[in-house]
Amino acid sequence: MSIERLKPFINGAFVPSETQKYMPVYNPSTGEVIAETPCCTAAEVASAVEAAKTAFPAWANTPCAKRVEVLYRFRDLLMQHMDELTMILCRENGKNWDEAQGDLLKVKEPVEVALGAPSLLMGESLMNVTSGFDSTLYREPLGVFAGIAPFNFPAMIPMGWMMPMCIATGNTLVLKAASMTPMTSMRLCALLAEAGLPNGVVNLVTCSRNEAELLLSHPDVAGVTFVGSTSIGRHIYATAAANGKRVSCLCEAKNHALVLADAPMERTVAGIVNSAFGCAGERCMALPAIVADERIADALVAELLRQIKTKKIGPAYDKTTDLGPLVTAEHRQSVINWIETGIAEGAKLVLDGRNVTVPGYENGFYLGHTIFDHVTPGMRVGNSEIFGPVLCIKRVKGFEEGLALMNASEFANGSVIFTQSGYYAREFAKRTQGGMVGVNVGIPVPAGMFPFSGHKHSFFGDLHVLGKDGLRFYTESKVVTTRWFDDEERKQSAVGTWDGAL
Question: For residue 466, what is the DSSP state?
């Protein structure tokens, strides 16, 4: 099978890279290398910034209604090419067919929110703010933004969270796609060009952290948005902010769900299985930790095992697959290392996915559903982000103990409760420290008109992505105060000035 050599997208075209270093892109279902993506040089990253800088004045001056016309056409092209894009995403990332399609539909949703930019950008005004003076607030674009995307959502994050509101508000963008999964974003860049996006408004490079570091200090970059690990996010936030840039860093998570004794067992477990093992656990809104009332914990584990037995492990593009492979062999080994850590820490391994094989796909990066029970405070396997299909069960005596255990986490993306009690649901929503809360909802990801609002070490910045926060992140407010003189005042002022000169 031929291996495609990919190219960066700069100033409206895919251009050959001058680098001598290329990074492999795998098909996780087979373990084969299907493409090579360039480790773009620092000069090529700088040229992408220059293209975005050059495109900014004309794009910012384009009426907002004209800007969103491009997004209307892009949305239509996205839907027309849905099967093609889904296959690309399955092949490079390993998500099953429905999950890959969901990743792409999560591009459509924020695009449609950004289509409302002409209304969202309308400012505020007050006539006669003081005698004879009127004030009006406008929202204006800032310039070039950099988006640094992870491997796990190669469509939604760069082309949903980062791109639509950025360009709808009149900014330009340089995306650093994840080198493991760049092909989906590259194809979407081609569709943006087909939709009529002017050259240089959106650019895409792949590179190492060394070259990406340029984006954090480049004088022509106004802001940086990032999704990835907490350690890197903290560095990006500190470095970019120190260079005077807007920064939004979405980082790690260890989302917990509190299961009370009154929760309907079968439906609750179905939600847990979907949220814990969907996308092979490679998502920051996965549900890798369950805090279970000890009265129903045994029944919960039994129902988990029963439902998981019905799930098929297989290649991503087989439409009957429930659990696809992990993204690379290295990442699979990292998750295996975490499983071995859990065993060493004394957690009870009730389901072990380490020895899974898929007939005909023996070289794929597969790892089966894995469950630890009796995970106690202090065990790293229960507190750290594993980013794989590993579920930890923590047993508690009731609501108060469970809530305290959850709030002790350093991360606070999602927080979930399963209960039929309105009282406990309300108490939980009020007192949990998670930024996105689910009540009988396993994956409380908000729709695109609301912000993706992680807390604690799951987020560094002031304004979140999506919703009104996203609009504010990509714009600067300007307040114009005006005063007009009537004809008589102008005449008197002119005469007075002339008489004084004489």
Answer: S
Amino acid at 292: A
pLDDT at 263: 98
Return the sign of the alpha-carbon dihedral for residues 237, 238, 239, 242.
positive
Token code pair at residue 495 = 């005469």
The model's pTM: 0.94
Burial class of residue 18, CB neighbours in 10 A (0-12, 13-18, 19+): exposed
Residue 494 Cα distances to 133, 498, 502, angstroms: 21, 6, 13
Look at residue 333 and give its three-state secondary structure: helix
Residue with tokens 């800007």: 67
Residues catalogued as catalytic: 284
Please compute Rg for the chain using Cα positions. Answer: 26
Q: Residue 244 carries which DSSP code?
A: T
pLDDT in tens, 342-373: 999 999 999 999 999 999 999 999 999 999 99
Place of tokens 């799930």: 311
426: CB partners within 8 A, 6+ apart = none
Task: Say if residues 383 and 335 touch (Cβ distance below 8 Å).
Answer: no
The closest of 320, 263, 255 to 281, measured between CA atoms, is: 255
* Integer Cα distance of 67 and 173 in angstroms: 14
Residue 90: closest CA among 401, 321, 299, 245: 321
Cα gap 39→59, rounded to integer Å: 29
Evaluate the CA torsion angle 189, 192, 196, 200 in order and state its sign.
negative
| Interior/surface letters 388-423, b for 16+ CB within 10 angstroms, e for the rest | bbbbbbbbbeebebbbebbeebebbbbbbbbbeeee
Predicted confidence at residue 455, as pLDDT, reads 96
Cα–Cα distance, 184 to 159 (Å, whole number):
10
For residue 72 the two structure tokens come to 């209307």
What is the greatest pairwise CA distance in the chain?
A: 101
Q: How many CB atoms lie within 10 A of CB 313?
A: 22
Q: Alpha-carbon distance 348 to 382, whole Å?
A: 12
Contact by Cβ (8 Å): 47, 57: no
Q: Where are the alpha helices (DSSP H) in 126-264?
A: 156, 163-168, 183-194, 209-217, 230-242
Of the pLDDT bands very low, low, confident and very high (cuts 50, 70, 90), residue 498 is: very low
Inter-CA distances, 72 with 77, 106, 147, Å:
9, 15, 22
Q: Quote the Cα angle for 283-257-232, to 5°.
A: 35
